[in-house]
């Protein structure tokens, strides 16, 4: 397995690798975890009804241009692309989360940034199709599409709630 270190910067705390990781390489096998009854800020959703807490997963940050894939079926983290030594490790949170416990404004700076990370429920299928998305999220998104549950009102309500809870003055939302 790959050696990692905790790294703290002005942006916060995350994990970095101390050696190169090649695309497709298994970075971490998820074997020692605890099931939790409710989603938390650091839990990861592994199926429609199950969230887990795990020491490595809980320290991985989000990016809209991630270098890791969390495969919840195989219970492993895989390099989505070549990763250089000392590069921060990240995954696309909506790839595992239908609805986030604590949404936040993304500051990754990627051209494909989703701006507000609230879970896959709040992203269009076009946006989701650009990323690796786990089976339980794909299934839920497609069932919502069939039931026509993706509504602009839900997204607007979420943004308004997010603004109220965080004190954010403005958010830029691109209509999908």
From TrEMBL:
One Pfam short name: SET
Domain of life per record: Bacteria
PROSITE patterns in the record: SET
InterPro entries xrefs: Flavunoidine_N-MTase, SET_dom, SET_dom_sf
Bilayer-crossing regions: none
Chain ranges of the SET domain: 2-94
Family annotation (PANTHER family): HISTONE-LYSINE N-METHYLTRANSFERASE-RELATED, SET DOMAIN-CONTAINING PROTEIN
The protein, known as: SET domain-containing protein
Organism expressing this protein natively: Scytonema hofmannii PCC 7110
Record lineage: Bacteria, Bacillati, Cyanobacteriota, Cyanophyceae, Nostocales
